[in-house]
Design goal:
Pfam families: Oxidored_FMN (PF00724), Pyr_redox_2 (PF07992). The structure is a single chain. By secondary structure, the protein is of the alpha/beta class. The chain has 3 domains: 350 residues, Aldolase class I (TIM Barrel), CATH 3.20.20.70; 134 residues, Rossmann fold, CATH 3.40.50; 151 residues, FAD/NAD(P)-binding domain (3-Layer(bba) Sandwich). Helix content is 32%, strand content 17%. It has 23 helices and 28 strands. The strands form 7 sheets. The chain has an 8-stranded parallel barrel, surrounded by 7 helices. The chain has a 5-stranded parallel β-sheet with strand order 16-15-14-17-28. Helix 1 runs parallel beside helix 2 and helix 3 runs parallel beside helix 6. It is globular and about 75 Å long.
């Protein structure tokens, strides 16, 4: 067995489509009411955090302009707050006053110049609004049901207040049309205000807006009708709608189909199908969600309505998008994170440059996880997003000879940018593959898409003219002999080895060696550490030995085992896995969009997690710890080190004579996430 981790994906680019004729559906014109769209690719609304006091900014215009320049068909901007109590948080856009029209008009002028059609998403958070974002006022909703998302209880809207908000939606739509938007999209999905009226979970009213499905849909219906009346019947209205709420006791697909019919009859020109509520405990945006997993919802709704249907969620490559359209599952493909990763997705796909598409891997490190912590959005694989001005590439004043040491993500990004600026760049990697720690990160179940990051970064560096030399360990003396003008050190970090008696036991292995298959796993596995890497290794170990999904379907279909048992056989193997750490939290290095998914998976797999432990010793039976004042032996056949990494503090000093300029980036400087390494590579590439 080849023990080179990730060797199968190095310097091999995915090209499942070989000619333009393969994309005959994706690049057909489409219509939404009176609006003609140049292709079937839609940039779905995505909160970016770029607004200032509710205004569209130049930063935002540049962000969306790249999507328009990249031949996206329809760009849905927003959401735009329509009412003072409807705000979603810091950096949100507003459309509740005429003062916002000029900046929106400037946005539309720039996007229309490149041939894109535009829509403004009209937004009211309802009980998803935090009181501190609406000047300390109590959030509002269909009923006074506490929100698990905000941990606040809203007050129930009165009928006059419902009328006020409906009028706010109409006024917002009129402003959108005045600002040049070709359409509006109403967000009636994912748990926001209109969803709160639709769902029996959050709507317990006893008046004409509660009770029956028709009554619960009344608010959304009236918003559509009022906008049509206010803006004209020819002005396109798209309704964003959850195909299923993924909430126990909430609307299922059957109710969602009927709701879509009601919205169509009210005048909606298209329905855009989303999945779930933000409170749902079913993953919808994590990397572990299979590509196109929820498209069946759009198919079911499309068969029940006559207006165009959009589908979304984990649709990130042209082949999948094309197949969805060809199979008749949807009329348009809505993408947010995929176009956040590469705004030129459409143009590259149309031209057959599939290997040049910057991939979205569903990691959420640059987008959702940053938004959840109040930071503006970008992308791990493309840090230019949202930073178009800062990260523009200009030619070097004087071409230099530059060595890059290390072929991880930071080194590859630095090398690419340096070469594109005109420098002569050689990258040295001591192993036989590229990708650094990202290679190992792509091995656990649900993280396979990270291989696409490696493929893209390696291919982009090669296309830029970087000379890549593998299986060569560069040293300061060898580098100095080449007389470079500068050296970029991106050589990574080493595994942290905790000071525990017996740590040199043959039972002990680094997480990377386990993931690469260089070390066999015993039946009892103890993992030292409980950060992101440890959690993912825990899932890998617990699932190793599980039967394939195809085998599970076969067994269930033929009655060999009950369906539930077949799922369990496909979910996990037979190993007993324990994560143990000194600290107090599990998975604290994981982003907010991912952490709960990982912790939920560990629990389902039966992985034991121990925090607050004191390590006593490793012996021939396992790991002896002290926990809550008592001693416990964690029996182990295999002990995996996943307690983090540490940089070489003397690295720069050893290299200082190798070249006039020495730059240390990525894990070599300080162990961090992939996004940090790539951003550092992008910055140093523009500095030299």
């Amino acid at each position: 067995m080849d023990n080179r981790p990730g060797h199968q994906c190095q310097r091999r680019l995915c090209n499942r489509l070989n000619d333009m004729s393969a994309l005959k559906f994706l690049f057909r014109e489409g219509s939404i009411g009176s609006m003609t769209v140049r292709n079937r690719i839609v940039m779905a609304a995505m909160h970016l955090g770029y607004a200032e006091d509710g205004y569209v900014t130049e930063r935002m215009i540049r962000y969306y302009e790249e999507c328009a320049r990249g031949e996206t068909g329809l760009i849905v901007c927003g959401g735009f707050k329509v009412h003072r109590l409807g705000g979603g948080g810091m950096g949100f856009l507003s459309i509740d006053d005429d003062k916002y029209i000029p900046a929106m008009a400037a946005l539309n002028e720039r996007l229309h110049f490149h041939g894109a059609k535009t829509a403004a998403q009209l937004f009211h958070a309802g009980r998803y609004a935090f009181s501190f974002t609406i000047d300390g006022e109590q959030p509002v909703s269909s009923s006074a049901i506490p929100s698990r998302l905000t941990r606040e209880t809203p007050r129930e809207l009165s009928i006059p207040e419902i009328r006020e908000i409906e009028e706010a939606f109409v006024a917002a739509a009129i402003r959108a049309r005045a600002a040049g938007f070709d359409a509006v999209e109403i967000i009636g999905s994912t748990g926001y205000l209109i969803s709160q009226f639709l769902s029996p979970l959050s709507n317990q009213r006893r008046d004409s807006y509660g009770g029956s499905l028709q009554n619960r849909a009344r608010f959304g219906i009236e918003v559509i009708q009022a906008i049509k009346q206010g803006c004209g019947a020819d002005y396109p209205v798209i309704m964003r709608h959850s195909g299923t709420e993924l909430m126990e006791g909430g609307n299922s697909i059957m109710e969602s189909i009927e709701i879509a019919r009601l919205f169509e009859r009210a005048g909606a020109d298209a329905v855009s199908i989303q999945i779930g509520w933000h409170e749902s405990r079913t993953p919808t945006v994590a990397a572990s969600v299979p590509h196109g997993a929820f498209t069946f919802l759009a198919r079911k709704i499309r068969s029940s309505v006559a207006v165009p249907v959009m589908t979304c969620n984990r649709i990130t490559d042209p082949a999948l998008a094309e197949s969805i359209l060809e199979d008749g599952d949807a009329d348009f493909i809505a993408m947010a994170r995929a176009l956040n990763a590469d705004p030129h997705f459409s143009k590259k796909a149309r031209e057959g440059r599939f290997d040049e598409i910057i991939p979205c891997t569903g990691c959420n490190e640059g987008c959702l996880d940053r938004i959840f912590t109040g930071q503006p959005s970008t992308c791990m694989n493309n840090p230019v997003r949202g930073n178009e001005e800062e990260f523009s590439i200009t030619g070097a004043e004087r071409p230099k000879k530059i060595l890059v040491v290390g072929g991880g993500p930071g080194g590859l990004e630095a090398a690419r940018v340096l070469a594109e600026r005109g420098h002569r760049v050689t990258l040295y990697e001591k192993t036989g593959w590229l990708g650094g720690r990202l290679v190992y990160g792509s091995i656990p179940p649900g993280r396979e898409d990270l291989r696409k990051t490696i493929q893209y970064l390696a291919g982009a560096a090669e296309r830029a003219g970087v000379e890549i030399i593998l299986e060569t360990e560069m040293t300061p003396s060898l580098a100095k002999a080449q007389t470079p003008d500068a050296v970029v050190l991106a050589s990574g970090a080493r595994t942290r080895v905790p000071d525990i008696s017996g740590i040199d036991s043959t039972k002990v292995a680094a997480a990377e060696d386990v993931l690469a298959g260089r070390v066999p796993l015993g039946q009892n596995v103890v993992i030292i550490g409980a950060g992101g890497v440890a959690c993912e290794v825990g899932i890998y170990a617990a699932r190793k030995g599980a039967i394939s999904p195809e085998a599970a379907v076969f067994l269930a279909e033929h009655g060999v085992v009950p369906p539930g048992e077949a799922v369990e056989l496909a979910r996990r193997g037979s190993r007993q896995v324990t994560l143990v750490r000194r600290g107090s939290a599990v998975g604290e290095t994981l982003g907010r969009s991912t952490r709960w998914v990982i912790l939920q998976e560990l629990k389902k797999l039966g992985v034991r997690t121990i925090t607050g432990a004191h390590y006593l010793e490793l012996n021939d039976k396992g790991l002896l710890i002290q926990l809550d004042g008592r001693t416990e032996l964690l029996e182990a056949d295999t002990i995996i080190l996943a307690a983090g990494y540490e940089a070489d503090s003397k690295l720069a000093e050893r290299w200082r004579e190798a070249a006039p300029e020495i730059h240390v980036i990525g894990d070599a400087l300080a162990p961090a996430k992939g996004i940090d390494a790539i951003i550092e590579g992008a910055r140093v590439g523009r500095m030299l």
